[in-house]
Structure formats: C-alpha cells, structure tokens
UniProtKB/TrEMBL annotation:
InterPro entries: DUF1631. This is Thymidine phosphorylase. Residues 642-663 are annotated as: Disordered.
C-alpha cells in the first residue's frame, strides 16, 4: 500500500496536554461508533442463531445430533448476554489502550495470531481454521477502507504503526475477541462452528459501514482528509507477475462474473483454508520460506534472490517445451506410482531449470509461489489417484500440470473461482473422460479430442489466458454434438424398453383378469384355450391401443364372463334358453376379437365350427367333436410374432451371485440416483463397463443404462443394483466436478498433516 504524494491536511495536536485530551476525544468517538455498530451487528447475528440451529435440528441425521442442536440453542439463549458483554468489553479495552502506545518500534501482537495453528486437539484445529478463513477473506475484501482507518488511527496515536494485526476493529482483532468471548459457551464444536459462520456473515461481512463511519468522523475532525491510497492485492505476485493479454483478462473476468454469490463465497473460503493450512505446514516443518515478502535466502555464504514470477514462468516454459516434444506414453506402459512421483517432483525440476537459466540454483521460491506449486502438484496427484478416470485418461490429463501451474501463477483466481475458464476446461475434460472406454469410443473421437486439447495447451500456451476460454468453447461444442447424437440412440433404447414394459404389464393384466374370472372352475380345453391364448392377446392389444379404462376393454372383459358362463352344464330348459341367447353375441365378439389378433378368416371359421359342435353337445343335440386332439385350435402363425416379441430382445448383462440381504445404505444410494449418473460395472470380475443411467421406468422401477454413444448396456431392478453395490460388482462414480473433489481431498490431506503436528503429508 502506498499513499499518494500530495499534501494532506493533518490535525494539529498542539501541546502535550492538548494532545492527550485530543487523542482521548478522538479515540472516544471511535470507541462509541464501534461499540454502537458492533452491538447492533452482534445482536442481529444472535437473532439468526436460533433459526439456523433449529433448521439443522430438523434436518439432523439422527436423534442424538438433533439433541445436540437443541442443547446448543438453549445454551446460546442462556449465555448470549455474557458473550455479547465479553466481546464488546474486549474491543473497548483494546481501543482505549491505543492511547497508551507511544513508541512505534514494537507493536504488541494480538493474542493467538490468525495463522497460529500449532494445535493439539482436533476441535481447536477446526476452530482455528474457521477463524483464519474468515480473517483472510475479510481482510482482503476490506483492504481499502481498513487501510484508511489504520492510517488515521496511527496519526491520532502519535505516529505508532497501526495495521491489520494491531487495529482493534480490524477483522483479525474482532475475530479473536469473539473467539475469546465464545469461551463463555460450553456448546459442542459443531454448534460453535455454525455461530462462527454467522459471525462472519452478519458481523465481519458488514464492516464497511463501520469503517466508513469511523473514516467520516476522523476526516470531519481533520485527520488526513486528503488521504488516497492504492492497494496491492495479497494474491498478486509483488508486481513481478507477467500480465495476461487483454483478451485473456476479459475472458477470465467475464467467466468469473458468472459465479453465484454463494459459490464464490464457498470457493473463496476453501482457498483461504488451504492457504492457512499451507502456512501451518511451513510453521510445523520449520521451513524458512514462510514469509511471502522475503526478498531472498542465504545459501553458500551469499544471498540468492528468490525467483520472480517471470523467472518461474520462463523456467516452466522450458520444461513445457520438453514435455510437448516428448512421445505420449501409453497407459499400459506407465507405472502410476512413477507418474505420481514425477508430478510430486516438479518443484525440484523447476529449481534445477532456474539454476540452469540463472547460473546458480535457488534454494527455494517465495511462500505464495511455493503454495501455488504445491497446490497444483496435489491437484494432479489427485487426478492420478482418482479411480473415476480411466487409466488412459489419467495419463493424458497428467501432462497438463505445467500449463496449469503457469496459469495459476499468472492468475491467482484459478483456485478461488469455480467458473474460471481454466478450471471449467479441466472439469469438462474430466467429465468427458469419465464415461470413456475403448468399446464406446471405437472411432476414437473422444480420445482424439481430449488428446488434441492437451497437446494444444502444451504447444501453444504461454501467457494468453484466453486460450482456456477458446478450448473450453471447442470442448463444449464437442460435448453438445456428442450429446445430441447419443440422445437419439438413448431415445430409441428408452422407447424400446418402455414398449416392452407396456407389453409385459398388459400381458399380466390380461392374464390376471382371465384367471380371476375362471377362479376355481375347470373349463373344457376348448374354452380355456381360446381364453388363455387368442382372447388374452386380444385383451393385450386392446390395453395397448385403447387403454384399460376404454369401453372396448370393458366389452372384452364382458365377453370373458359370458364365454365362461357358456361352459356351464345345461340342466334344464332355462339353462338351454340362456345359452341360446348368449351364442349369437359370443360368435360376433369372437369374430371381431380374433380378427383383431390377425386370425385369418379360414382360421376363424374353423374355430367357430369347433365351438358350434361343442355347444350342440352342450345342448344335447350331438356327440362331442374330436376333430382336434385336445379340442383346442392351434394359434395360427400370423399372430406368433406378438407372442415372441420379448423373447427376441437381448437379455441384460447378469451379475454374479450376490448377498441374499441388501443393506439399507445401498438401497438408499440407488434411490438417490438420477438420470445422468455414471456407474462402473464389473459383473465378471475383470471386464469393466462404464454406463450412464438413462431412464428409470415409472412402471417397473427398473434402471436403464447406456454407454456414451447411447447404446444399451443393461437394465436392472433396484434390488439388483443394490446387491451389486454390496458385492462390489458395481460402484457409483462421483458426480461432483473434478476440481471440487480435488480441493476437498487436498483440504482433508493438509488438515491431517496439521493435526499430526509434523507437517508431513499423509
């Protein structure tokens, strides 16, 4: 930060006595402003604590967790006045104490600095990370207004240095004061972390008005009224970073503007947490590169300057050109452990290349560059360990480590914004690669597209960040083209499955209706055969064409009742007259129904002839007809395709024997699957198939899976999938973007290292 070189009117403090009174008056005014505003902000925050804890209690996974939140609500209500008094009193004491500081040489550091993470308890680590994250985020965001407050407080306090670490109303001091006040609460850490989140949202995130009011009051009192300043952002590389082209800047800005507030906040907090953990690791390992502002290090008796960003980019460009001209290794020939080791050793290769360019090898890089190198390295280590990606795709994407390290040095926002073009490009490549297999990519279109983007970045990327935007656009267009082509195949597969299911359900309904009406009766073979075969098919077609609620279906069922009734023995004149009344209607219905299922006219006449003979025998007019062996007319060839439709469909792939019982957890996972989810199947123990859930049947609940080309892989009932998950013959592939999963894994890894107290990564 630097002040403008123009004269500023500074308040005159006069004599020592006048000076003391003046300092007291001005600090009193600042203290009053801070006390009033902070009391309002803190009160507003506590008004939201109850709602937040109640919502979490309602969504708790079990009764025990729910009780923790309810206990936390009661504890907060009981202790809130004490927390508020403690916090406000501490801020007031710190502001009052500023007047006692007369020497600028030694500023007293605040208790437990924001990055002091040498902790022994997991709870304390979580608490420190929460505090550190919100301090870092808000110091960066409030830098301009806070700088002015610091400068004006320095003037009224006699010239002592006031900065972000010693200003009682700066985010660091306020966060530490609130942490101290929170000791009044005995609630669980999960409850405290929620309260810290709300403190960040309702207090620290609204400090602009406090700083503006303080600045306005001090300007009115004549303290540095002409003050102007420029803020050098902490995520810039001390002015040494090579500037991207104008087109590159615009591409990044346009894309970043698309971040939603919520996503931007979460990504920023995550990045601040990672940086805090890197600082903790350096502190625990006793590294000498902890200061981002260090100008150099001592080695071999002479000072060796820390490499600038331009030097790093130059060395990386040399390494990149060597990688670009080298042959592409095959996945079968590469040992994943060796590839991962090479990724982890990039820092050493970089320092060696810097030494070759300089003539002397630097021992280290600045802290912010070291963090960036380590973060990119851990990202690509995650890619190489991520079983979501096929091995061939891991080999391809691992070659992007150097271009992405250059991009991260050029633009520190790469890890902070989810919509950054470079980040979106890598996520898009990983998403395309997730469903890749040699079987589904026989024409090599997908593999060649990913390979071409990787090679383009290796050969062409220097400092023009717009290249990521352009390649991302090409990848998106390829995605869309592939998706449209696959959707047509998917629709055909889904329609085929839907048709088979409708046919199967119609058959079951027809059979159930007939069997329910027959009940325990024993029908003559001729009557039973007509109902079970020809008329059952007529019912099926009526359901499919006109629906179960149609008059035609109701009429077809009435025929079943009459046809069954016609088979009852005739014992008297009344039975005889009843049967004679039914026969004309039975004949008319049969003619229509048999024609509906493609009976030829000759076949219909033949069947009716058999029925006439049967009914004459029923009426006592003739002996039984034995023109066929079983008294049943064979189904003609013309309707056989209807009966064989399903048998001609390919059977879905079968899983090996699975456990008889399925855990509720697996069933719950299956129920949460949505179309578009990817699974990996390994039913035979060695042949691996990746498939996307394309359709869930609303009729049978079966899950239909297709490959990336939209071709059917299989369809399974929910319990079959759950059993496959339990047996390990299927697994659900993560749906979250690669970058998000990698950042979460990196935080977990660094947190474990911080908790161990050694700084060593697991």
């Amino acid at each position: 930060m630097k002040e403008a070189n123009e004269p500023s009117k500074v308040v005159s403090l006069g004599s020592r006595q006048d000076s003391a009174e003046r300092i007291g008056d001005l600090l009193g005014a600042v203290r009053a402003i801070a006390g009033r505003r902070l009391q309002l902000l803190l009160g507003n925050m506590f008004e939201h604590v109850d709602d937040a804890l109640f919502d979490l209690a309602e969504k708790a996974e079990n009764n025990a967790a729910q009780m923790h939140y309810f206990d936390g609500m009661r504890e907060v209500r009981k202790r809130r006045p004490m927390v508020e008094r403690s916090f406000l009193a501490q801020v007031s004491r710190e502001l009052t104490g500023l007047s006692a500081r007369t020497a600028p040489a030694t500023a007293v550091p605040p208790p437990a600095g924001p990055l002091e993470l040498s902790l022994v308890a997991e709870n304390e680590l979580e608490e420190s990370l929460a505090i550190t994250s919100m301090i870092s985020k808000n110091e960066s965001r409030l830098a301009r207004d806070l700088f002015a407050v610091n400068q004006r407080l320095s003037v009224i306090c006699g010239g002592i240095k006031i900065d972000e670490s010693t200003n009682p109303v700066a985010p660091a001091a306020l966060a530490q004061a609130f942490r101290q006040a929170m000791r009044e609460l005995t609630a669980e850490m999960r409850v405290k972390l929620i309260i810290y989140k709300l403190f960040d949202r309702y207090v620290l995130s609204t400090l602009e008005e406090l700083y503006q009011e303080i600045n306005t009051e001090l300007v009115r009192a004549g303290v540095l009224p002409q003050l102007r300043h420029e803020v050098v952002r902490g995520d810039a590389s001390a002015g040494a970073t090579a500037a991207p082209t104008a087109a590159g800047n615009k591409a990044v800005v346009d894309a970043v503007a698309g971040d939603t507030d919520k996503e931007a906040e979460l990504a920023s907090e995550l990045l601040h947490t990672v940086r805090a953990l890197f600082s903790a690791r350096r502190a625990q390992s006793g590294g000498v590169a902890a200061s981002a502002g260090a100008a150099g290090v001592v080695g071999h008796g002479a000072a060796i300057a820390v490499p600038t960003a331009n030097e790093l980019l130059g060395a990386l460009s040399v390494l990149q050109s060597q990688l670009a001209t080298g042959p592409l290794p095959s996945a079968d020939a590469v040992d994943p452990a060796v590839l991962s080791r090479d990724v982890a050793q990039l820092k050493e290769h970089l320092l060696g290349q810097l030494g070759a360019l300089r003539g002397e090898r630097p021992g280290q890089v600045s802290a912010i560059d070291e963090d960036t190198i380590d973060l990119v390295g851990m990202l690509f280590e995650f890619i190489l360990a991520d079983s979501t990606l096929p091995a061939e795709m891991q080999v391809l994407l691992a070659r992007l480590q150097i271009p992405y390290l250059k991009a991260a040095i050029l633009d520190r926002r790469l890890f902070a914004h989810r919509q950054h073009p470079a980040r979106r490009l890598l996520d898009g490549l990983a998403e395309l690669a997730k469903g890749w297999s040699q079987e589904s990519d026989r024409d090599h279109r997908v593999y060649e597209k990913i390979k071409s983007i990787v090679e383009c970045l290796l050969h062409d990327f220097d400092d023009d960040m717009s290249l990521f935007e352009r390649l991302g656009g090409e990848l998106q267009a390829f995605h869309e083209q592939s998706r449209k082509r696959a959707e047509l195949a998917e629709q055909r597969v889904a329609e085929s499955a839907r048709g088979r299911e409708k046919l199967e359900l119609a058959r079951r309904r027809a059979a159930r209706e007939i069997l329910d009406r027959i009940g325990s009766q024993t029908l003559p073979p001729l009557i039973h055969g007509v109902l079970a075969r020809a008329w059952a098919n007529h019912l099926v077609l009526t359901i499919l064409r006109q629906g179960e609620d149609s008059p035609a279906f109701a009429e077809a069922l009435r025929f079943v009742n009459e046809f069954i009734a016609s088979a009852r023995p005739v014992h008297g004149d009344e039975d005889r007259r009843s049967l004679l009344r039914m026969l004309p209607g039975i004949e008319r219905a049969l003619r229509r129904g048999l024609a509906n299922v493609a009976f030829q006219e000759s076949d219909i006449e033949r069947l009716l002839g058999q029925l006439h003979a049967y009914y004459r025998q029923q009426l006592g007019e003739s002996a039984p007809d034995t023109s066929t062996e079983d008294g049943v007319l064979p189904i003609p060839d013309s309707i056989q395709p209807l009966l064989d439709t399903e048998s001609r469909e390919p059977e879905p792939e079968s899983f090996p024997p699975t456990p008889a019982t399925v855990d509720d957890g697996e069933l719950s996972q299956i129920e949460q699957l949505k179309p578009g989810s990817w699974l990996e199947f390994c039913p035979t123990g060695d042949a691996v198939t990746r498939a996307k859930l394309s359709w869930i049947s609303p009729m049978s609940g079966r899950y239909l899976f297709v490959n990336r080309r939209g071709l059917k892989v299989g369809d399974y009932a929910p319990h079959e999938l759950a059993a496959a998950l339990a047996a390990g013959s299927a697994r659900i592939l993560p749906s979250e973007p690669l970058f998000d999963r990698a950042m979460g894994a990196i935080v977990d890894r660094l947190s474990q290292a911080a908790a161990s107290g050694t700084g060593d990564l697991p």
